[in-house]
Amino acid sequence: MPIYEQTYRRYEARGPLRNVRFWPIAREALRHVLAKRAFLGLLALSWLPFVVRLVQIFVVTRFPEAGRMLPVNGGMFGEFLNQQIGLTLLLSAFGGAGLIANDLRTGAILVYLSRPLTRRDYVLGKLTVLLALNLAVTLAPGLLLYAAALALAPEQFAAWSLAWIGPAIVAHSLLVALAAGLLALAVSSIARSARVAGLSFVLLFVGLGVVGAVLKNVLDTPATALVSPQGDLELVGRALFGVAAQDGVHWAWAALVLAALGAGCVLILRSRVRAVEVVA
Asked: Which of 87, 159, 261, 276 has its CA at a distance of 20 to 30 angstroms from the CA of residue 182?
């Protein structure tokens, strides 16, 4: 009777569950983040700009002469979403700093990946948390603001010439949420402390913004501002909403920088998230 070699075989989930294996990771991480009252306060604070813009639309629709100082047009939605970028950075820092760092510190990542979960499931589950948080302060208020504009000023916004506003809000919100989420996870995978990861993430965005501004003034070259991820997101956002760039840099360069940044974050996650830990 022949004897066959029995090697290790990874346990796989049932077929119907394989496409949603990331969901339990996302659900538990999101529940843990939302259990913090301070974070809920920050989330509520992130909706204050929405209230301000809603009042702006109401005032302009009732007093059209106020539109000279407070213009209500397609560009207003781009300005609103660009203002929300700073808030998404804070949410990503507080909500995403410990998503991977804590698992690396406690060794929980080895437990995750020893189950019928792939590295993609793990990263996708953690990324879903940040996407949900960031879209809650970009996509949700942006679409509600657009719906309010349609209700308060249908003669102005309910036109085919402005039908691009809705898709532009979705595209810009997804871009901001994905860029902030990937970078926050990459930083979290490098640090083993949630505090260090959160501080590093904020300093990275702020520091690159300062470096870009200094290089722009010293070298007198507008393209140097592309080193700032926040500046790149704002530049692409202005292009989506038809606002001309003030420094003359084409939005395609900013999109290319963001794509390279995203690819770099994926490579970092690929190297840091693994089922074995190498100890030097």
From this structure: 276
